[in-house]
Amino acid sequence: MDARTETVIIPHPNEQNKIAELQRQILRDVQAHAADGEVWLPLFPPYVRALAENAVVNACTITQARRDGDRIVLDAEATTPMGTAHLTLPIAQRLATPPAADDAPPLPATDALPLRLPVFRIARVAFTQTETRTDWTVLESKWVKAKKIK
To answer: Which helix (H) or strand (E) holds 87?
Structure first.
């Protein structure tokens, strides 16, 4: 078993529902236009990743959806005292291949983005990888009410 610990942003359940609906919308469109044999798997949990350890985050907004190789991610911007951190929230992974086409259709436009996270948790999460799955445990977390951005 492979274990690692990360600091992540966990959206409030209200925003998690919005992210899940956006994920379903994107995957329906991507799968409808997928090459033969191409299969996309939704990824969970909806954690915004790549946050620096012990980061202080004042606000977080999910800005866009994009393809990132064999993944689909939502880009996010977190406002910190040190400036803006650019983060990602992985929402899908391509399982079956043919190789990715450079001319893959763009992801669908959506009115759901940008999505501001008015309340979220900053959490230290342990991810444990086995051969068939990844388990996660929230070790500690702190709720944050986002500050208004001018």
So the answer is: strand 83-96
Question: pTM to 2 decimals?
Answer: 0.89
Answer yes or no: are the C-beta atoms of 136 and 128 closer than 8 Å. Answer: yes
User: What six digits make up the tokens of 85?
Assistant: 């951190």
Q: In sequence order, what are the residues at sequence separation of 6 or more whose Cβ sits closer than 8 angstroms to the Cβ of residue 70?
A: 93, 94, 97, 100
Q: Give pLDDT, residue 99.
A: 56
Cβ neighbors of 71 (< 8 A, separation 6 or more) are 43, 90, 92, 93, 94
Task: Tell which phi-psi region holds residue 102, choosing left (phi > 0), alpha (psi between -120 and 50) or beta.
Answer: alpha
Q: Are the CB atoms for 143 and 10 separated by under 8 Å?
A: no
Task: Tokens for 117, please give them.
Answer: 């996270």
